[in-house]
Amino acid sequence: MSVAERTQDALLRPALLRAAVSLIEESGIGAVSVREAAKRAGVSPCEPFNFFASKGELLTAIAEEAMESLVTALQAAILDASHSSAMNQCRATGHAFLRWAFDNPVHFQVMSTPALLDFESSGLAASQQHIRAGLKRLIAAAAAEGDLYCVSVEDTLLAARAFVYGLARMQIDGQMPGWGVPRETSLETMQRLFDAYLFRLRRG
Fold first, then answer.
1. Which of 82, 115, 127, 182 is the most buried if burial means most Cβ atoms within 10 Å?
2. How far, in Å, CA of 56 to CA of 51, rounded?
3. Where is each HTH tetR-type domain found (predicted)?
């Protein structure tokens, strides 16, 4: 393969991912196919199959990008709060997840459809477990510091995950205005609600 061909291949894969994301933004996940992504990217229908043999592989690649950016966002939030208490680090991760979902609605949607993804062999499951392990350590530390009432670390994490996921899902599904929350204040509102949720878990 020539240098020009390698360069073209290196550019084509991200172009196909951008095209697929654009299709999801416009028409939803159901509108995505490898051929439609090729059409949107302006290449022949056969070229994308060098990278993605199926819609599932294409969506999995988008999910991998999403997971990488989410991990980066969570790690940055923890680092920024690293000189504070574990409880404040828990708060920072919740805020970071909500901001990430707000800023990346398509990636959130793709990651929320595991049945369409190659979740296990792609490494997505391992990344998810890595995130969970880190959050469990934070919750356990907050409980050990006496700031968090926690009977079970696993249950506390599941409940917190359900809370932030539900808020993000409502935002992305366009439900917030129906609850009197315009888009321009929805992120602030979601983060404030998460703070109120954490307050109820505090000891004392």
1. 127
2. 12
3. 10-70
Question: pLDDT, tens digit, for every residue of 133-147?
Answer: 999 999 999 999 999
Burial class from Cβ neighbours inside 10 Å (0-12, 13-18, 19+) for residue 188 reads exposed
Contacts of 123 (CB under 8 A, 6+ apart): 64
| Homologous superfamily of the 63-201 domain (CATH) | Tetracycline Repressor, domain 2 (1.10.357.10)
CA distances from 79 to 108, 132, 140 (A): 23, 17, 18
C-alpha span between 145 and 203 (Å, rounded): 10
Contacts of 16 (CB under 8 A, 6+ apart): 37, 38, 41, 43, 48, 51, 52, 58
Domain with CATH 1.10.357.10 in the chain: 63-201
Q: Which two structure tokens, joined as six digits, stand for 187?
A: 């992120």
Q: What are phi and psi of 160, to 5 degrees?
A: -65, -40
pLDDT of residue 3: 33
Q: Give the containing element (helix H, strand E) for 79.
A: helix 55-80
Backbone angles phi, psi at 46, to 5 degrees: -85, -30
Sequence-distant (≥ 6) Cβ neighbours of residue 46 within 8 angstroms: 38
- Say what the pTM is: 0.90
